[in-house]
Specification:
Elements: E1 8-13, H1 38-51, E2 55-58, H2 73-78, H3 91-96, E3 102-108, H4 114-127, E4 132-137, H5 142-147, H6 156-176, E5 183-186, E6 191-193, E7 203-204, E8 209-210, E9 225-229, H7 233-242, E10 245-247, H8 253-269, E11 278-287, H9 291-304, H10 307-313, H11 329-336, H12 352-361, E12 368-371, H13 373-387, E13 391-394, H14 401-416, H15 430-435
Parallel strand pairs: 1-2, 1-13, 2-3, 3-4, 4-9, 9-10, 10-11, 11-12, 11-13
Antiparallel strand pairs: 5-6, 7-8
Helix pairs in contact: 1-14, 4-6, 6-7, 7-8, 10-12, 13-14
């Protein structure tokens, strides 16, 4: 009998007052204002660990949302991803109070040099015993570009071209600079590392010159588990080469399946197996002990959503709230003499009121469920079996109620159905949680493998 497919569950977080559910941080009992308190993260990590979550997925940005209303004022008032702490610095403390919880952290390939980042991630992989993953991002905020000395953001596809070289440098450092057995720690001989098993990488490329060697010896996974969020042609091609877990979505089951099949095709074209890529989506799960309780929570969240926060987050370059709700978006743009091609995502023939409601409340999402534990578990099983989803980034409406509700009500039900690991399972690396025991490192068919040292029988001592 075939074992039921299991769900991988991350809590989607960010070290900021308002991450993606804007306007909800002031709700009674919400802990969002404690985001800069280390105890917040220790409490959350232990709640997730004991509750059965697989991971904590930490988003990040390196700029302010300052397009809407021509400045950062709205984002600052809303606490919209500013203030915002560095997610990498939170992980060691949370790892120290957990044994199984994985950590996914976002970091951009566009602005900071790869050598220092390689060192930080290898350090985290050691300190977490292989429970770290990297969400590869290229950064999209205009303010981020200005923070790193540029006049404007680098064009989208060029950022991905730069990311290719960034990954090449990282693979050379993580996979190629040290042999597995380079550290000998021979007390009698007084030798810690065998120098013949460590090498320079001597990378010279379009943007980076890196001599090496890597400063950190091989960590449990060497290369952290590679996440990526994408949907563009350049992003899909990049994911096909590199990503192990893709953060994607879709309004319908068919749209989600088309997205995932396109990425599997891209992986196959790069010589990888179609099954080398797993898929997670952001999911809204509002669960209660009864259907009525869940619907009351959902009503509370919707009533408190901030329109200004959502508009600022979309970086909308025109303020639609300044126009009558009954006129069409097209009319509003004409009155403002604003070119429609700058906002191709706006429905021109809808009213301003309809467009604002769309931004505030969102469209009908495939991965949204409101109900009791049985209703939620039934729907998650459909996501797994019909849509082909592998995991979710749980959208957080309330800290810590969102995570606590899921841990207390949904995870026990999923465990009963064989959809999540049993309580007390032995710790594994983050890559093994997705790909099975024994898969601690990238497979030989992944592009990173080409930078591994050649076997001695070839007569070569370095792949560079």
């Amino acid at each position: 009998m075939t074992e039921p497919k299991q769900l991988f569950v991350n809590l989607f977080e960010m070290a900021t007052p308002s991450h993606i559910t804007h306007g909800l941080w002031p709700l009674p009992g919400n802990n969002r204002e404690r985001f800069a308190d280390l105890d917040y993260w220790l409490e959350l990590a232990q709640l997730l660990e004991h509750g059965g979550f697989d991971g904590l997925f930490l988003a990040d940005v390196v700029g302010a949302y300052d397009v809407f209303r021509d400045g950062p004022e709205t984002a600052l008032r809303e606490g919209l991803q500013i203030p915002n702490l560095d997610p990498l610095l939170l992980v060691p403390a949370m790892a120290a109070v957990t044994d199984r919880l994985g950590f996914g952290v976002a970091f951009s390939t566009t602005y900071e040099p790869p050598f220092a980042f390689a060192r930080r991630m290898s350090t985290l992989d050691h300190l977490t015993k292989g429970r770290i993953g990297w969400n590869i991002v290229t950064s999209y905020l205009p303010n981020a570009a200005r923070n790193f000395g540029l006049d404007a953001e680098i064009p989208h596809d060029l950022r991905y071209r730069y990311a290719e070289e960034y990954l090449e440098v990282l693979y050379k450092l993580w996979e190629g600079s040290w042999d597995d057995d380079a550290v000998v720690a021979d007390r009698a001989a007084g030798v810690f590392t065998d120098p013949s098993k460590v090498r320079y990488i001597d990378h010279v490329g379009e943007r980076h010159r890196v001599a090496g060697p890597h400063l950190v010896h091989p960590s449990p996974q060497r290369t952290p588990l590679l996440f990526q969020a994408t949907g563009s042609p350049a992003g899909i091609a990049f994911a096909g080469r590199h990503a192990e877990v893709v953060f994607t979505g879709g309004r319908t089951s068919d749209e989600f399946r088309r997205n995932t099949e396109g990425m599997r095709d891209a992986a196959e074209q790069q010589g990888r197996d179609r099954d080398d890529v797993r898929f997670i989506a952001m999911a809204g799960v509002i669960v209660g002990r009864t259907q009525e309780e869940a619907e009351d929570k959902w009503r509370l969240y919707r009533e408190n959503v901030s329109l200004d926060g959502m508009l600022a987050h979309t970086s909308l370059p025109i303020d639609l709230t300044a126009f009558p709700r009954e006129i069409t978006v097209r009319e509003a743009l004409e009155r403002a003499e604003f070119p429609a091609e700058r906002v191709p995502f706006l429905p021109l023939d809808r009213t301003v009121g309809q467009a604002l409601d769309f931004v505030k409340y969102g469209r009908d999402e495939r991965f949204l469920v409101v109900g009791d534990a049985k209703t939620v578990a039934d729907e998650i099983e459909r996501w797994l079996d019909e849509d082909g989803l592998d995991g979710i980034n749980l959208r957080q409406y309330h800290s810590f109620d969102t995570a606590r509700d899921f841990a207390e009500l949904v995870i026990p039900e999923l465990r009963r159905r064989g959809r999540m690991p049993a309580e007390g399972d032995a710790p594994v690396t983050l890559r093994e949680r997705f790909f099975g025991a024994g898969n601690r490192r990238l497979p030989d068919r992944h592009p990173a493998a080409r930078y591994r040292p050649k076997p001695p029988s070839t007569g070569k001592t370095s792949p560079f």
